[in-house]
Amino acid sequence: MKKTLLMLCLMALGSQALANSYEAAMQAVKNGDINTIYELLKRGLDPDTTDPEGNSLLMLAARDGELPLVELLLAQRPKVNFRNSNGDTALRLAAYGGHLEIVKKLVGAGAMVNTPGWTPLIYAAFSGHLPVVQFLIEAKADVNATSENGSTALFVAARNSHGDVVRALLAAKADPNKATELGATPLDAAERAGFSDIVAMLKAAGGKNGKP
Prior knowledge:
Layout: H1 2-31, H2 34-42, H3 57-63, H4 67-74, H5 90-97, H6 100-108, H7 120-127, H8 130-138, H9 153-159, H10 163-171, H11 186-193, H12 196-204
Helix pairs in contact: 1-2, 3-4, 3-5, 4-6, 5-6, 5-7, 7-8, 7-9, 8-10, 9-10, 9-11, 10-12, 11-12
């Protein structure tokens, strides 16, 4: 009886310790507190611990641009291509935020440049992060990959008025006439948004209108 009670007490204490470590880890990542994460990892914290939305510690650090923390976590050999509940990876989130050095570290650690659906390149183009776009192109990103709705990096860059990104993608042989699932082309997107300079670039590259 006494042994059973002792075991239950130890189990309860262990569960509480794990809960405390989890909360401490989530708060530390949020604050970019590398020292706390380092100590927790030494005490056995799983580097692939996730928040309620399925974001791993690496994903959270990459999303928030915490380079030293990303480097620390990568040294623990986490799952670099882990996906959250939205299907995002650490590389996608870093690309969306324009965190070039983190993007480089993740690619160097084996992060997939070409993923199904919204690729890191499309995310970077959507946000207009030219240095990230250029790096991903050099890393063999598929410039004509499409998201779930058929949008390409060129389409989202044209729609969001990122002229320098449009120019870089066209130079990398992005297809100016690849249409979305609704038949809209990058030229359609640029014309509807009233971006005359991008319209001119796309027409010079052979861009045409899609379905009416």
